[in-house]
Structures are given as structure tokens and as C-alpha cells.
TrEMBL record:
It comes from the Bacteria. Keywords: Cobalt, Lyase, Manganese. Pathway: Polyol metabolism; myo-inositol degradation into acetyl-CoA; acetyl-CoA from myo-inositol: step 2/7. It catalyses: scyllo-inosose = 3D-3,5/4-trihydroxycyclohexane-1,2-dione + H2O. The lineage of its organism: Bacteria, Bacillati, Bacillota, Clostridia, Thermoanaerobacterales. It comes from Mahella australiensis (strain DSM 15567 / CIP 107919 / 50-1 BON). Pfam families: AP_endonuc_2. PANTHER family: HYDROXYPYRUVATE ISOMERASE (PTHR12110), INOSOSE DEHYDRATASE (PTHR12110:SF41). GO terms for molecular function: manganese ion binding; myo-inosose-2 dehydratase activity. Residues 39-294 form the Xylose isomerase-like TIM barrel domain. This is Inosose dehydratase.
Length: 300
């Protein structure tokens, strides 16, 4: 196993392990300060933005820099398939400018038109949205435009394939990648969402290495995944049941994934993003577990 290049690859962790944005009752007791202090304590240098983070960029920057942390990315919800383009554009520009002020280079966007990821009663597999031909065109054209807006500020738009949305399977990722301009639209590669969907994460990283500009590291518990399918669970219930966990604690072998990223010269952030119920999975304990695993498997 080659060690990945510390000068090229930075490690971050997402606040979703401390407080869940989709289900704020999970981790409601964990404060912003505790969250970022524990991230730093576990040995991470980057973070994404959670719902408890101060809205004022200067306040946020100060709190993070005290702990040697910085913002690397923040989730953006696009509604290109269901709402007028301008609504998404206006929201995107605001989001882009905030991230720019915070010094982040990456914007992770996911299409939320028809998404069922936040709906508690719809089974994540059976209820998955399928875009029409017209919706695919609106999505691709819209993303190309957002990608140009990102580039205007020297930033990069990455697309986050996600369970319960219209871009979930490899076939759908292929379609999106082929319909969008590689100069403007990149891929946010998420190991957990690929495995949850039934895809091979090694195949995907090999196929799209040149377009991957941000990486989410999350693992999947095989027994919970089987239960999700068996019981037709929703995405939120699957998360609550513990379908996701940190690298090294589930069914994914990350060594070949790290190797492909290293061999193809990946440069950017790898972010541990494993949403669980913090009452069941202590966030600091799991952050340390992930950090140790990445040190062993990626040499970082």
C-alpha cells in the first residue's frame, strides 16, 4: 500500500455525526463548539457546514481557526427539475459567495427535485424518483450553468449522487456525467451512497477519477442494509437504524479505493461523512476510529 500524498490530500469530517441536518433531534444535545472541538481532537483539519454553525462567516472562521480547522465544502440543494432555474441560481450564488468568503473551493450540489431522502414514509428503493427526459435536460443544462458561476470565483461544482434522488445508480451517474460539461461539472464521489445503491465503488472511482474533485468516505453495515431492503425502509429510517458508519467499521474495503485515488493523482479533500444516531455511536469515538483507519489504510 502506497501512502497517499499529504500535500495533495486533506482530511475532513462532516458535522452530521454530531447533529443530523435531516433529523435535528439526532444529536440535538451536541453543541457547535463541542462538535468542532472533537473534530480537531480526532485529528481532522477540515469540516463541512452543519445547521448549528454560526451564520456569520467571520464568527465561524474564528471558531474554526482557533482549532486548526477550515471549511472545505457545504451541501447545496438544487431544484432544477421542479422549480424555475432562477430560484436555484439565486440560492446558489448566495451559497457560493458564503463559501468563497470562508475560503472553501468546493460546492457539493445534489438535485432535490422529487427527492424522497427526507420523507419518512416512502421506501428508499421502491420510492426512488426517476427523471423524465425533459427533467434530465433541465438538470444537465442547469448544472452546466451553476458550474460556470462557481468557476467565476475560482471554485468547483461537484455533483453529489445520493440515495432517494434521481441520481443514485451508476447508470444515472453515467447519464449525468455524459450530459454535463466536464469543464464545469465534477463528481462528488461518495462510497457509502454507491454501496447502499448496490454499485461497486472501485469501478466508479476508476471510471470517473478524472472528474472526482471531492470525496465522502462512509461505510455501510451489511446487516442493516439487508434489513432496509427486506423491510422497505425509508432513507431516514435506514440512517436511524445505522446503515451508515465510519470507514473501517462496515463492509467496504477502502484500500483499493485509496489506491486508485492515489494512482490517478487525486488532489483535494477526503471527508468522513457517516450519519448515525450519536446516542448510539459516540461521535468522538467514531471520529477517532475513522482517523486511525485512514492512517493505516491511506498513510495519511
Amino acid at each position: 500500500m502506497n501512502d497517499m500524498d499529504k500535500n495533495k490530500v486533506k482530511l475532513g469530517i462532516a458535522p452530521i455525526a454530531w447533529t443530523n441536518d435531516d433529523m435535528p433531534e439526532l444529536g440535538a444535545e451536541n453543541t457547535f463548539e463541542q462538535c468542532i472541538s472533537e473534530m480537531a481532537l480526532a485529528g481532522f483539519e477540515g469540516t463541512e457546514i452543519g445547521n448549528k454553525y454560526p451564520k456569520d462567516p467571520q464568527v465561524l472562521k474564528k471558531a474554526l481557526s482557533l482549532r486548526g480547522l477550515r471549511v472545505c465544502n457545504a451541501w447545496f440543494s438544487a431544484y432544477l427539475t421542479t422549480k424555475p432555474l432562477q430560484e436555484t441560481v439565486d440560492a446558489f450564488v448566495k451559497h457560493r459567495d458564503l463559501l468563497y468568503e470562508l475560503g472553501a473551493k468546493i460546492i457539493g450540489a445534489a438535485e432535490q427535485g422529487h427527492s424522497i431522502q427526507g420523507l419518512k414514509d416512502i421506501p428508499v428503493f421502491a420510492g426512488k424518483p426517476i427523471f423524465t427526459k425533459e427533467e434530465w435536460k433541465r438538470l444537465a443544462d442547469g448544472l452546466n450553468y451553476l458550474g460556470k458561476l462557481a468557476q467565476n470565483k475560482g471554485m468547483v461544482l461537484t455533483y453529489h449522487h445520493h440515495m432517494g434522488t434521481g441520481v443514485q445508480t451508476l447508470e444515472e451517474i453515467d447519464r449525468l456525467m455524459s450530459m454535463t460539461d466536464p469543464d464545469f461539472v465534477y463528481l462528488l464521489y461518495d462510497t457509502g451512497h454507491l454501496v447502499f445503491s448496490g454499485e461497486d465503488p472501485v469501478e466508479v472511482v476508476k471510471k470517473y477519477a478524472a472528474r472526482i474533485k471531492h470525496v465522502h468516505l462512509k461505510d455501510v453495515r451489511k446487516d442493516v442494509l439487508e434489513k432496509v431492503k427486506r423491510e422497505d425502509m425509508s432513507f431516514l429510517d435506514a440512517v436511524r437504524a445505522g446503515v451508515f458508519t465510519v470507514p473501517g467499521d462496515g463492509m467496504i474495503d477502502f484500500a483499493p479505493i485509496f489506491k486508485v485515488l492515489d494512482d490517478t493523482g487525486y488532489e483535494g479533500w477526503m471527508v468522513v461523512e457517516a450519519e448515525q444516531d450519536p446516542a448510539k455511536a459516540n461521535p468522538l469515538e467514531y471520529a477517532l476510529k475513522a482517523r486511525e483507519y485512514i492512517k493505516v489504510k491511506a498513510g495519511l
